[in-house]
Amino acid sequence: MPPQASGGCFTRKKSNEEGKPRMHALLSRNRFIILTLSGALILSPLFAQDAPEFEREEVNNSAPVQFINRTNQRASAEMRAQDVTAGQTLAGQVVETRESANNDVQVRRLFDPANPGLGADVLTIGPRANFGHINRIQRILTGYLMKAFEYNEADATTVSRFVLYYNARQRGNMEAVRQRYSEAVAGAVTPERVGIDRSYRNWAGNTQILLPLRKNVTRPDQTELNDQEIENQTRDDATTTEQNDLNRIQEERTQETTTRIQEQNEQIQDQRQNIQDQQQQTQQQLEDANRRLQDVQNDPNATPEQVEQAQNEVTQLQEQQENLQQQDQQLADQQTENNQNLQEIQNQQENQDVAATDTTATTNTDNAATDTATDTNATTTTTQQDEAAEEPDVSQNVIQNKILFMRVVRYFQGGHYSNELWAIDSNADDALFRSPFTNICSREFTTIQDVGVLVTGYSGTNQDHNPNDHHLVMLDPETLAKKAESAEVVYWRTPMEWRDQKIYAFAEVEGQHYIARFNPDLTLDVRGDVAVNPNSMITFTQDKIYITSMPQSQGAPTAIHVFNRSDLKHIRTIDANALQRAMSGG
User: Fold this and answer.
1) N or C: which terminus of the chain carries fewer CB neighbours within 10 A?
2) CA angle, 201 as apex, 199 and 206 as ends, to 5°?
3) What residues does 432 pair with on adjacent strands?
4) Closest Cα partner for 215 from 234, 206, 228, 203?
Protein backbone atom coordinates (compact mmCIF):
# COMPACT_ATOMS: atom_id res chain seq x y z
CA MET A 1 0.00 0.00 0.00
CA PRO A 2 1.48 3.39 -0.91
CA PRO A 3 2.24 5.75 1.97
CA GLN A 4 -0.10 8.64 2.62
CA ALA A 5 1.03 12.22 2.89
CA SER A 6 -0.21 14.95 5.15
CA GLY A 7 2.35 17.65 4.67
CA GLY A 8 2.64 18.17 0.98
CA CYS A 9 2.09 16.78 -2.46
CA PHE A 10 4.67 14.12 -1.66
CA THR A 11 5.53 11.50 0.97
CA ARG A 12 8.47 9.71 2.49
CA LYS A 13 8.35 6.04 3.44
CA LYS A 14 9.30 4.86 6.90
CA SER A 15 13.07 4.74 7.29
CA ASN A 16 14.93 1.73 8.64
CA GLU A 17 17.05 4.10 10.66
CA GLU A 18 16.17 7.55 11.96
CA GLY A 19 17.14 10.18 9.40
CA LYS A 20 17.50 7.70 6.53
CA PRO A 21 14.15 7.67 4.69
CA ARG A 22 13.87 5.45 1.66
CA MET A 23 12.98 7.13 -1.63
CA HIS A 24 9.30 6.66 -2.56
CA ALA A 25 9.58 6.15 -6.30
CA LEU A 26 8.27 4.01 -9.08
CA LEU A 27 11.21 2.93 -11.20
CA SER A 28 10.49 2.62 -14.87
CA ARG A 29 12.19 3.30 -18.13
CA ASN A 30 11.00 6.88 -17.99
CA ARG A 31 11.84 7.12 -14.28
CA PHE A 32 8.39 8.30 -13.29
CA ILE A 33 7.95 9.37 -9.71
CA ILE A 34 4.56 8.51 -8.21
CA LEU A 35 3.83 10.61 -5.16
CA THR A 36 0.90 9.80 -2.91
CA LEU A 37 -1.55 12.48 -1.91
CA SER A 38 -4.17 11.80 0.69
CA GLY A 39 -6.05 13.79 3.24
CA ALA A 40 -9.12 15.77 4.07
CA LEU A 41 -10.18 19.03 5.59
CA ILE A 42 -12.26 18.75 8.74
CA LEU A 43 -13.17 22.39 8.98
CA SER A 44 -16.11 24.42 10.03
CA PRO A 45 -17.25 26.60 7.13
CA LEU A 46 -16.51 30.28 7.02
CA PHE A 47 -19.67 32.30 6.96
CA ALA A 48 -20.85 33.74 3.69
CA GLN A 49 -20.64 37.51 3.33
CA ASP A 50 -20.66 39.95 0.47
CA ALA A 51 -17.53 38.55 -1.14
CA PRO A 52 -16.61 35.20 -2.62
CA GLU A 53 -14.28 33.17 -0.47
CA PHE A 54 -12.40 29.99 -1.22
CA GLU A 55 -14.75 27.02 -0.69
CA ARG A 56 -12.39 24.60 1.10
CA GLU A 57 -15.19 22.21 2.04
CA GLU A 58 -15.90 21.44 -1.62
CA VAL A 59 -12.38 20.10 -1.91
CA ASN A 60 -12.40 17.69 0.98
CA ASN A 61 -13.90 14.40 -0.19
CA SER A 62 -10.99 13.01 -2.18
CA ALA A 63 -9.58 9.52 -2.15
CA PRO A 64 -5.79 9.16 -1.94
CA VAL A 65 -4.28 10.81 -5.00
CA GLN A 66 -1.15 9.74 -6.83
CA PHE A 67 0.59 12.13 -9.19
CA ILE A 68 3.13 10.94 -11.73
CA ASN A 69 5.97 13.46 -12.00
CA ARG A 70 8.74 13.82 -14.51
CA THR A 71 11.63 14.07 -12.06
CA ASN A 72 12.67 13.37 -8.48
CA GLN A 73 15.26 16.07 -7.86
CA ARG A 74 14.73 19.18 -5.76
CA ALA A 75 14.03 22.59 -7.21
CA SER A 76 16.41 25.42 -6.42
CA ALA A 77 15.45 28.00 -3.82
CA GLU A 78 15.24 30.60 -6.57
CA MET A 79 12.79 28.51 -8.60
CA ARG A 80 10.63 27.86 -5.55
CA ALA A 81 10.49 31.58 -4.80
CA GLN A 82 9.68 32.37 -8.44
CA ASP A 83 6.74 29.96 -8.39
CA VAL A 84 5.23 31.57 -5.29
CA THR A 85 5.78 35.04 -6.77
CA ALA A 86 4.10 33.97 -10.01
CA GLY A 87 1.02 32.91 -8.06
CA GLN A 88 0.94 36.21 -6.20
CA THR A 89 1.21 38.11 -9.48
CA LEU A 90 -1.75 36.21 -10.91
CA ALA A 91 -3.83 36.92 -7.80
CA GLY A 92 -3.04 40.63 -7.78
CA GLN A 93 -4.32 41.00 -11.33
CA VAL A 94 -7.44 38.95 -10.63
CA VAL A 95 -8.40 41.09 -7.64
CA GLU A 96 -8.11 44.20 -9.82
CA THR A 97 -9.57 43.04 -13.14
CA ARG A 98 -10.95 39.50 -12.53
CA GLU A 99 -8.58 38.15 -15.19
CA SER A 100 -4.85 37.51 -15.23
CA ALA A 101 -2.16 35.70 -17.18
CA ASN A 102 1.48 34.88 -16.51
CA ASN A 103 3.75 32.45 -18.35
CA ASP A 104 0.88 30.60 -20.05
CA VAL A 105 -1.13 30.26 -16.84
CA GLN A 106 -4.43 32.15 -16.91
CA VAL A 107 -6.99 32.82 -14.19
CA ARG A 108 -10.59 34.03 -14.53
CA ARG A 109 -12.80 34.98 -11.60
CA LEU A 110 -16.40 33.94 -12.23
CA PHE A 111 -18.45 34.99 -9.23
CA ASP A 112 -21.76 36.74 -8.74
CA PRO A 113 -23.37 36.28 -5.31
CA ALA A 114 -26.78 36.98 -6.85
CA ASN A 115 -26.57 33.88 -9.07
CA PRO A 116 -27.25 30.33 -7.83
CA GLY A 117 -24.37 27.90 -7.59
CA LEU A 118 -20.76 28.28 -6.57
CA GLY A 119 -18.51 30.86 -8.13
CA ALA A 120 -14.90 29.97 -8.89
CA ASP A 121 -11.49 31.18 -9.82
CA VAL A 122 -10.63 29.03 -12.84
CA LEU A 123 -6.87 28.53 -13.24
CA THR A 124 -6.01 27.25 -16.71
CA ILE A 125 -2.62 25.78 -17.59
CA GLY A 126 -1.88 26.60 -21.22
CA PRO A 127 -0.29 24.31 -23.81
CA ARG A 128 3.10 26.03 -23.63
CA ALA A 129 3.48 25.70 -19.86
CA ASN A 130 6.15 23.31 -18.64
CA PHE A 131 5.42 21.73 -15.28
CA GLY A 132 7.29 18.52 -14.52
CA HIS A 133 6.36 18.19 -10.86
CA ILE A 134 3.13 18.74 -8.97
CA ASN A 135 4.98 20.78 -6.34
CA ARG A 136 5.51 23.58 -8.85
CA ILE A 137 1.77 23.89 -9.43
CA GLN A 138 1.20 23.70 -5.68
CA ARG A 139 3.63 26.58 -5.09
CA ILE A 140 1.82 28.74 -7.65
CA LEU A 141 -1.44 27.96 -5.85
CA THR A 142 0.26 28.80 -2.55
CA GLY A 143 1.25 32.26 -3.79
CA TYR A 144 -2.20 32.74 -5.25
CA LEU A 145 -3.96 31.92 -1.97
CA MET A 146 -1.61 34.23 -0.07
CA LYS A 147 -2.41 37.22 -2.25
CA ALA A 148 -6.03 36.59 -3.21
CA PHE A 149 -7.38 35.42 0.15
CA GLU A 150 -4.79 36.61 2.70
CA TYR A 151 -3.49 33.25 3.87
CA ASN A 152 -0.03 33.17 5.42
CA GLU A 153 2.47 31.04 3.53
CA ALA A 154 2.30 27.99 5.80
CA ASP A 155 -1.50 27.88 5.76
CA ALA A 156 -1.60 28.54 2.02
CA THR A 157 0.75 25.59 1.50
CA THR A 158 -1.61 23.33 3.43
CA VAL A 159 -4.77 24.51 1.68
CA SER A 160 -3.16 24.38 -1.78
CA ARG A 161 -2.58 20.64 -1.35
CA PHE A 162 -6.28 20.08 -0.83
CA VAL A 163 -7.10 22.20 -3.83
CA LEU A 164 -5.05 19.69 -5.84
CA TYR A 165 -6.70 16.71 -4.13
CA TYR A 166 -10.09 18.17 -4.92
CA ASN A 167 -9.29 18.90 -8.55
CA ALA A 168 -7.77 15.47 -9.09
CA ARG A 169 -11.05 13.97 -7.90
CA GLN A 170 -13.11 16.37 -10.03
CA ARG A 171 -11.12 15.53 -13.17
CA GLY A 172 -13.55 15.41 -16.10
CA ASN A 173 -16.63 15.35 -13.85
CA MET A 174 -18.79 17.90 -15.63
CA GLU A 175 -21.95 16.51 -14.04
CA ALA A 176 -20.67 17.48 -10.59
CA VAL A 177 -19.60 20.89 -11.88
CA ARG A 178 -23.05 21.58 -13.32
CA GLN A 179 -24.72 20.47 -10.09
CA ARG A 180 -22.64 22.57 -7.71
CA TYR A 181 -21.30 25.51 -9.70
CA SER A 182 -22.93 28.47 -11.42
CA GLU A 183 -23.77 28.44 -15.11
CA ALA A 184 -20.89 30.84 -15.75
CA VAL A 185 -18.36 28.43 -14.24
CA ALA A 186 -19.85 25.37 -15.95
CA GLY A 187 -19.76 27.20 -19.26
CA ALA A 188 -16.10 28.16 -18.83
CA VAL A 189 -14.72 24.63 -18.41
CA THR A 190 -14.73 21.51 -20.58
CA PRO A 191 -14.87 17.79 -19.74
CA GLU A 192 -11.44 17.27 -21.29
CA ARG A 193 -9.72 19.88 -19.11
CA VAL A 194 -11.65 20.44 -15.88
CA GLY A 195 -9.67 19.39 -12.80
CA ILE A 196 -6.12 18.09 -12.96
CA ASP A 197 -4.80 14.81 -14.35
CA ARG A 198 -2.64 12.46 -12.28
CA SER A 199 0.20 12.53 -14.83
CA TYR A 200 2.45 15.47 -15.72
CA ARG A 201 2.09 14.51 -19.40
CA ASN A 202 -1.51 15.77 -19.39
CA TRP A 203 -1.11 19.03 -17.47
CA ALA A 204 -0.06 21.44 -20.21
CA GLY A 205 -3.08 22.50 -22.25
CA ASN A 206 -5.40 20.10 -20.44
CA THR A 207 -5.91 21.53 -16.96
CA GLN A 208 -8.57 23.83 -15.46
CA ILE A 209 -8.18 24.01 -11.70
CA LEU A 210 -11.28 25.15 -9.81
CA LEU A 211 -10.99 27.25 -6.67
CA PRO A 212 -14.56 27.42 -5.31
CA LEU A 213 -15.57 30.81 -3.90
CA ARG A 214 -18.03 32.40 -1.54
CA LYS A 215 -18.77 35.89 -0.25
CA ASN A 216 -16.77 37.61 2.46
CA VAL A 217 -16.74 41.40 2.71
CA THR A 218 -13.65 41.36 4.92
CA ARG A 219 -11.38 39.90 2.20
CA PRO A 220 -9.89 41.38 -1.00
CA ASP A 221 -12.51 41.86 -3.72
CA GLN A 222 -15.02 40.74 -1.06
CA THR A 223 -14.10 37.16 -1.96
CA GLU A 224 -13.05 34.11 0.04
CA LEU A 225 -12.07 30.54 -0.71
CA ASN A 226 -15.08 28.36 0.05
CA ASP A 227 -13.77 26.01 2.72
CA GLN A 228 -17.14 24.29 3.17
CA GLU A 229 -17.16 23.08 -0.43
CA ILE A 230 -13.64 21.71 -0.15
CA GLU A 231 -14.33 20.04 3.19
CA ASN A 232 -17.42 18.25 1.86
CA GLN A 233 -15.42 16.70 -0.96
CA THR A 234 -12.28 15.56 0.90
CA ARG A 235 -13.25 15.00 4.53
CA ASP A 236 -13.02 11.17 4.58
CA ASP A 237 -9.32 10.89 3.77
CA ALA A 238 -7.45 13.25 6.11
CA THR A 239 -4.92 11.98 8.61
CA THR A 240 -5.11 13.17 12.19
CA THR A 241 -2.24 15.55 11.56
CA GLU A 242 -3.98 17.11 8.58
CA GLN A 243 -7.25 17.40 10.44
CA ASN A 244 -5.60 19.20 13.32
CA ASP A 245 -3.66 21.52 11.04
CA LEU A 246 -6.66 22.43 8.95
CA ASN A 247 -8.92 22.82 11.97
CA ARG A 248 -6.42 25.31 13.33
CA ILE A 249 -6.44 27.25 10.06
CA GLN A 250 -10.22 27.32 10.03
CA GLU A 251 -10.50 28.44 13.64
CA GLU A 252 -7.94 31.19 13.18
CA ARG A 253 -9.55 32.53 10.02
CA THR A 254 -13.02 32.37 11.54
CA GLN A 255 -11.78 34.32 14.55
CA GLU A 256 -10.02 36.79 12.28
CA THR A 257 -13.19 37.31 10.25
CA THR A 258 -15.23 37.74 13.42
CA THR A 259 -12.79 40.32 14.73
CA ARG A 260 -12.85 42.22 11.45
CA ILE A 261 -16.65 42.35 11.44
CA GLN A 262 -16.74 43.51 15.05
CA GLU A 263 -14.21 46.23 14.27
CA GLN A 264 -16.25 47.22 11.22
CA ASN A 265 -19.36 47.46 13.38
CA GLU A 266 -17.52 49.73 15.79
CA GLN A 267 -16.49 51.97 12.90
CA ILE A 268 -20.05 51.97 11.58
CA GLN A 269 -21.36 52.96 14.99
CA ASP A 270 -18.89 55.86 15.15
CA GLN A 271 -19.93 56.97 11.66
CA ARG A 272 -23.63 56.78 12.55
CA GLN A 273 -23.05 58.84 15.67
CA ASN A 274 -21.25 61.46 13.59
CA ILE A 275 -24.13 61.50 11.09
CA GLN A 276 -26.68 61.87 13.86
CA ASP A 277 -24.74 64.84 15.24
CA GLN A 278 -24.77 66.38 11.76
CA GLN A 279 -28.50 65.70 11.48
CA GLN A 280 -29.17 67.56 14.72
CA GLN A 281 -27.06 70.48 13.57
CA THR A 282 -28.69 70.51 10.14
CA GLN A 283 -32.16 70.32 11.69
CA GLN A 284 -31.43 73.39 13.79
CA GLN A 285 -30.10 75.21 10.72
CA LEU A 286 -33.21 74.18 8.78
CA GLU A 287 -35.53 75.55 11.48
CA ASP A 288 -33.63 78.85 11.49
CA ALA A 289 -33.75 79.01 7.68
CA ASN A 290 -37.52 78.42 7.68
CA ARG A 291 -37.99 81.29 10.13
CA ARG A 292 -35.90 83.56 7.93
CA LEU A 293 -37.93 82.52 4.91
CA GLN A 294 -41.18 83.35 6.71
CA ASP A 295 -39.80 86.72 7.81
CA VAL A 296 -38.76 87.57 4.25
CA GLN A 297 -42.09 86.43 2.84
CA ASN A 298 -43.92 88.62 5.40
CA ASP A 299 -41.69 91.62 4.78
CA PRO A 300 -43.41 93.96 2.26
CA ASN A 301 -40.06 95.56 1.47
CA ALA A 302 -38.29 92.28 0.64
CA THR A 303 -37.16 91.89 -2.94
CA PRO A 304 -37.85 88.78 -5.05
CA GLU A 305 -34.12 88.02 -4.96
CA GLN A 306 -34.14 87.95 -1.15
CA VAL A 307 -37.13 85.61 -1.12
CA GLU A 308 -35.46 83.30 -3.66
CA GLN A 309 -32.22 83.27 -1.68
CA ALA A 310 -34.04 82.33 1.53
CA GLN A 311 -35.98 79.61 -0.31
CA ASN A 312 -32.76 78.16 -1.81
CA GLU A 313 -31.19 77.99 1.63
CA VAL A 314 -34.14 75.96 2.93
CA THR A 315 -34.03 73.64 -0.10
CA GLN A 316 -30.30 72.98 0.27
CA LEU A 317 -30.65 72.15 3.96
CA GLN A 318 -33.56 69.80 3.22
CA GLU A 319 -31.46 67.98 0.60
CA GLN A 320 -28.57 67.78 3.03
CA GLN A 321 -30.83 66.28 5.67
CA GLU A 322 -32.14 63.69 3.19
CA ASN A 323 -28.59 62.72 2.21
CA LEU A 324 -27.66 62.24 5.85
CA GLN A 325 -30.70 60.05 6.37
CA GLN A 326 -29.74 57.90 3.37
CA GLN A 327 -26.17 57.51 4.63
CA ASP A 328 -27.40 56.52 8.07
CA GLN A 329 -29.79 53.96 6.56
CA GLN A 330 -27.00 52.41 4.46
CA LEU A 331 -24.80 52.08 7.53
CA ALA A 332 -27.68 50.63 9.52
CA ASP A 333 -28.29 48.03 6.79
CA GLN A 334 -24.60 47.10 6.78
CA GLN A 335 -24.63 46.80 10.56
CA THR A 336 -27.68 44.53 10.40
CA GLU A 337 -26.02 42.33 7.79
CA ASN A 338 -22.83 42.14 9.85
CA ASN A 339 -24.81 41.06 12.90
CA GLN A 340 -26.52 38.37 10.82
CA ASN A 341 -23.11 37.14 9.67
CA LEU A 342 -21.84 37.03 13.23
CA GLN A 343 -24.90 35.00 14.22
CA GLU A 344 -24.29 32.65 11.29
CA ILE A 345 -20.71 32.10 12.42
CA GLN A 346 -21.91 31.31 15.93
CA ASN A 347 -24.51 28.84 14.60
CA GLN A 348 -21.91 27.10 12.44
CA GLN A 349 -19.53 26.76 15.37
CA GLU A 350 -22.31 25.28 17.51
CA ASN A 351 -23.17 22.80 14.74
CA GLN A 352 -19.53 21.85 14.45
CA ASP A 353 -19.31 21.22 18.19
CA VAL A 354 -22.35 18.92 17.98
CA ALA A 355 -20.84 17.04 15.04
CA ALA A 356 -17.55 16.67 16.89
CA THR A 357 -19.38 15.25 19.92
CA ASP A 358 -21.25 12.74 17.75
CA THR A 359 -18.02 11.42 16.24
CA THR A 360 -15.94 11.26 19.43
CA ALA A 361 -16.41 7.52 19.96
CA THR A 362 -15.42 6.66 16.41
CA THR A 363 -12.44 8.97 16.54
CA ASN A 364 -11.18 7.47 19.80
CA THR A 365 -11.56 3.96 18.42
CA ASP A 366 -9.54 4.78 15.32
CA ASN A 367 -6.85 6.90 16.97
CA ALA A 368 -4.37 4.13 17.58
CA ALA A 369 -4.53 2.82 14.03
CA THR A 370 -4.39 6.31 12.53
CA ASP A 371 -1.44 7.41 14.62
CA THR A 372 0.41 4.20 13.83
CA ALA A 373 -0.18 4.68 10.12
CA THR A 374 1.06 8.25 10.35
CA ASP A 375 4.28 7.16 12.05
CA THR A 376 4.77 4.33 9.57
CA ASN A 377 4.44 6.64 6.59
CA ALA A 378 6.74 9.24 8.15
CA THR A 379 4.60 11.96 6.61
CA THR A 380 5.92 15.50 6.52
CA THR A 381 4.20 18.52 8.05
CA THR A 382 3.49 21.96 6.65
CA THR A 383 6.71 23.26 8.19
CA GLN A 384 8.77 20.75 6.21
CA GLN A 385 8.17 22.13 2.76
CA ASP A 386 9.68 20.62 -0.36
CA GLU A 387 11.70 17.95 1.46
CA ALA A 388 10.84 15.27 -1.05
CA ALA A 389 11.46 14.82 -4.72
CA GLU A 390 10.49 17.58 -7.09
CA GLU A 391 11.69 19.65 -10.05
CA PRO A 392 15.45 19.34 -10.57
CA ASP A 393 18.03 22.01 -9.89
CA VAL A 394 19.53 21.51 -13.35
CA SER A 395 22.44 23.25 -15.03
CA GLN A 396 21.88 26.75 -16.35
CA ASN A 397 22.22 25.59 -19.96
CA VAL A 398 19.35 23.08 -19.66
CA ILE A 399 15.71 23.84 -20.42
CA GLN A 400 12.96 21.23 -20.78
CA ASN A 401 15.67 18.55 -20.66
CA LYS A 402 17.43 20.09 -23.65
CA ILE A 403 21.15 20.82 -23.29
CA LEU A 404 21.96 24.07 -25.08
CA PHE A 405 25.25 25.30 -26.50
CA MET A 406 26.33 28.14 -28.79
CA ARG A 407 28.30 27.64 -32.00
CA VAL A 408 30.30 30.54 -33.45
CA VAL A 409 29.68 30.82 -37.20
CA ARG A 410 31.32 34.08 -38.17
CA TYR A 411 33.33 36.91 -36.61
CA PHE A 412 32.73 40.52 -37.64
CA GLN A 413 34.84 43.59 -37.08
CA GLY A 414 34.43 45.27 -33.71
CA GLY A 415 33.87 42.13 -31.68
CA HIS A 416 30.51 41.18 -33.21
CA TYR A 417 29.61 37.58 -33.93
CA SER A 418 27.10 35.55 -35.85
CA ASN A 419 26.20 32.51 -33.75
CA GLU A 420 23.91 29.50 -33.79
CA LEU A 421 22.15 27.93 -30.83
CA TRP A 422 22.12 24.14 -30.78
CA ALA A 423 20.38 21.67 -28.48
CA ILE A 424 20.77 18.06 -27.42
CA ASP A 425 17.33 16.66 -26.62
CA SER A 426 17.82 14.21 -23.74
CA ASN A 427 14.18 13.11 -24.08
CA ALA A 428 14.69 11.97 -27.68
CA ASP A 429 17.77 9.74 -27.55
CA ASP A 430 20.06 12.79 -27.45
CA ALA A 431 18.87 14.06 -30.82
CA LEU A 432 20.78 17.13 -32.00
CA PHE A 433 19.03 20.09 -33.62
CA ARG A 434 19.65 23.77 -34.36
CA SER A 435 17.53 26.79 -33.56
CA PRO A 436 15.88 28.15 -36.73
CA PHE A 437 16.79 31.65 -35.54
CA THR A 438 20.39 32.22 -36.63
CA ASN A 439 20.81 35.99 -36.26
CA ILE A 440 22.35 35.64 -32.81
CA CYS A 441 25.07 38.06 -31.77
CA SER A 442 25.44 37.23 -28.08
CA ARG A 443 28.02 34.68 -27.04
CA GLU A 444 25.83 33.80 -24.06
CA PHE A 445 22.17 32.97 -23.52
CA THR A 446 19.82 32.95 -20.53
CA THR A 447 17.42 30.06 -19.91
CA ILE A 448 14.14 31.02 -18.25
CA GLN A 449 12.08 28.01 -17.25
CA ASP A 450 8.54 28.01 -18.68
CA VAL A 451 9.36 31.15 -20.69
CA GLY A 452 12.17 30.46 -23.15
CA VAL A 453 15.79 31.10 -24.07
CA LEU A 454 16.95 34.72 -24.16
CA VAL A 455 19.59 35.94 -26.62
CA THR A 456 20.52 39.17 -28.39
CA GLY A 457 19.77 39.20 -32.09
CA TYR A 458 20.88 41.44 -34.93
CA SER A 459 19.20 42.69 -38.08
CA GLY A 460 20.47 41.90 -41.55
CA THR A 461 22.00 38.63 -42.71
CA ASN A 462 24.97 36.54 -41.73
CA GLN A 463 26.90 38.37 -44.44
CA ASP A 464 25.60 41.83 -43.56
CA HIS A 465 25.57 42.17 -39.78
CA ASN A 466 24.21 45.58 -38.70
CA PRO A 467 26.43 46.55 -35.72
CA ASN A 468 24.00 49.23 -34.49
CA ASP A 469 20.69 47.35 -34.40
CA HIS A 470 20.45 44.65 -31.74
CA HIS A 471 17.37 43.50 -29.87
CA LEU A 472 16.48 41.04 -27.15
CA VAL A 473 15.03 37.86 -28.68
CA MET A 474 13.10 35.16 -26.81
CA LEU A 475 13.28 31.66 -28.28
CA ASP A 476 10.62 29.04 -27.67
CA PRO A 477 11.83 26.54 -25.02
CA GLU A 478 10.57 23.58 -27.06
CA THR A 479 11.45 24.45 -30.67
CA LEU A 480 14.02 27.26 -30.15
CA ALA A 481 12.14 29.30 -32.77
CA LYS A 482 11.85 33.05 -32.24
CA LYS A 483 8.66 33.89 -30.34
CA ALA A 484 9.28 37.49 -29.21
CA GLU A 485 11.60 40.42 -29.93
CA SER A 486 12.04 43.68 -28.06
CA ALA A 487 11.09 46.87 -29.86
CA GLU A 488 13.90 48.64 -27.99
CA VAL A 489 17.47 48.50 -29.23
CA VAL A 490 19.85 46.98 -26.68
CA TYR A 491 23.60 47.04 -26.23
CA TRP A 492 25.05 44.22 -28.29
CA ARG A 493 26.96 42.77 -25.32
CA THR A 494 24.30 43.50 -22.74
CA PRO A 495 24.01 41.29 -19.68
CA MET A 496 20.61 39.57 -19.48
CA GLU A 497 19.41 39.09 -15.90
CA TRP A 498 16.17 37.29 -14.96
CA ARG A 499 14.90 38.62 -11.62
CA ASP A 500 11.45 39.28 -10.12
CA GLN A 501 9.80 37.58 -13.14
CA LYS A 502 11.38 40.32 -15.29
CA ILE A 503 14.40 40.72 -17.57
CA TYR A 504 17.09 43.34 -16.91
CA ALA A 505 19.36 44.54 -19.72
CA PHE A 506 21.01 47.69 -21.12
CA ALA A 507 18.80 49.53 -23.61
CA GLU A 508 20.27 51.97 -26.14
CA VAL A 509 18.63 55.34 -26.84
CA GLU A 510 20.31 57.88 -29.15
CA GLY A 511 23.74 56.47 -28.45
CA GLN A 512 23.25 56.42 -24.66
CA HIS A 513 22.72 53.29 -22.58
CA TYR A 514 20.27 52.79 -19.72
CA ILE A 515 19.40 49.99 -17.36
CA ALA A 516 15.99 48.70 -18.47
CA ARG A 517 13.49 46.12 -17.28
CA PHE A 518 11.46 44.04 -19.72
CA ASN A 519 8.43 41.80 -19.32
CA PRO A 520 8.69 38.12 -20.31
CA ASP A 521 7.12 39.00 -23.70
CA LEU A 522 9.97 41.54 -24.13
CA THR A 523 7.76 44.60 -23.93
CA LEU A 524 9.43 47.40 -21.99
CA ASP A 525 8.40 47.66 -18.35
CA VAL A 526 10.53 50.61 -17.23
CA ARG A 527 13.84 52.26 -18.15
CA GLY A 528 16.35 54.01 -15.90
CA ASP A 529 16.60 57.78 -15.96
CA VAL A 530 20.41 58.15 -15.98
CA ALA A 531 22.80 56.87 -18.66
CA VAL A 532 25.39 54.28 -17.64
CA ASN A 533 28.46 52.62 -19.10
CA PRO A 534 27.17 49.49 -20.91
CA ASN A 535 30.38 47.65 -20.05
CA SER A 536 29.19 47.26 -16.48
CA MET A 537 28.22 44.61 -13.99
CA ILE A 538 24.71 44.55 -12.51
CA THR A 539 24.40 43.79 -8.80
CA PHE A 540 21.03 43.32 -7.08
CA THR A 541 20.25 43.91 -3.42
CA GLN A 542 16.83 43.79 -1.80
CA ASP A 543 15.87 47.37 -2.70
CA LYS A 544 18.62 48.65 -4.99
CA ILE A 545 20.55 47.90 -8.17
CA TYR A 546 24.23 48.80 -8.49
CA ILE A 547 25.72 49.35 -11.95
CA THR A 548 29.51 49.06 -11.70
CA SER A 549 31.45 50.11 -14.79
CA MET A 550 34.36 47.91 -15.75
CA PRO A 551 37.57 49.95 -16.28
CA GLN A 552 38.92 49.77 -19.81
CA SER A 553 42.53 49.88 -18.60
CA GLN A 554 44.51 49.34 -15.43
CA GLY A 555 44.01 52.20 -12.98
CA ALA A 556 41.16 53.73 -14.95
CA PRO A 557 38.40 55.35 -12.82
CA THR A 558 35.40 53.30 -11.75
CA ALA A 559 31.91 54.73 -11.29
CA ILE A 560 29.04 52.98 -9.53
CA HIS A 561 25.46 54.09 -10.21
CA VAL A 562 22.81 53.21 -7.64
CA PHE A 563 19.17 52.78 -8.76
CA ASN A 564 15.93 52.07 -6.93
CA ARG A 565 15.03 48.47 -7.74
CA SER A 566 11.27 49.08 -7.92
CA ASP A 567 11.17 51.91 -10.49
CA LEU A 568 14.82 52.20 -11.70
CA LYS A 569 15.03 55.79 -10.49
CA HIS A 570 18.61 56.97 -10.00
CA ILE A 571 19.56 57.43 -6.34
CA ARG A 572 23.23 58.42 -6.39
CA THR A 573 26.60 57.96 -8.07
CA ILE A 574 29.64 56.65 -6.25
CA ASP A 575 32.37 58.15 -8.45
CA ALA A 576 36.11 57.67 -8.75
CA ASN A 577 36.82 60.54 -6.35
CA ALA A 578 34.86 58.82 -3.57
CA LEU A 579 36.74 55.61 -4.30
CA GLN A 580 40.07 57.44 -4.17
CA ARG A 581 39.17 59.07 -0.84
CA ALA A 582 38.21 55.71 0.62
CA MET A 583 41.49 54.19 -0.55
CA SER A 584 43.53 57.02 0.95
CA GLY A 585 41.54 57.04 4.17
CA GLY A 586 40.47 60.64 3.59
Assistant:
1) C
2) 90
3) 424
4) 228
